Amino acid sequence: MKQEAIRLLYFLLAAATIGWFFDHPGWAMVAGLLAYISRHLRNIEKLHRWLRDNPEDEVPEGTGVWDDIFHNIYQLQRDERRARDSLIGIIGRA
Fold first, then answer.
1. Rounded to whole angstroms, how far apart are CA atoms 12 and 71?
2. Which of 78, 54, 59 is nearest to 69 (CA)?
3. Residues 31, 16 contacting (CB under 8 angstroms)
4. pTM, 2 dp
5. Dist. CA 4–CA 38, nearest whole Å
């Protein structure tokens, strides 16, 4: 999470620097923040579509904190499948 905050800070600093060349650093930062938020909204949509439509399919790719989120969900699903398969094996042997 700390890395994501640093990424946002650098992103806004770059936007402000670009905006400074056009005498509008504040508006450039607003545009940069909107771009940053839109990236998160796209990843939320990816997550939603994946979980709704095909949660058994391969995990969507993300960047930054979203890569970690997708990877953690994948690991939870994998562990759940292994536990389920183990229980089914135990029941089958009983």
1. 27
2. 59
3. no
4. 0.74
5. 15
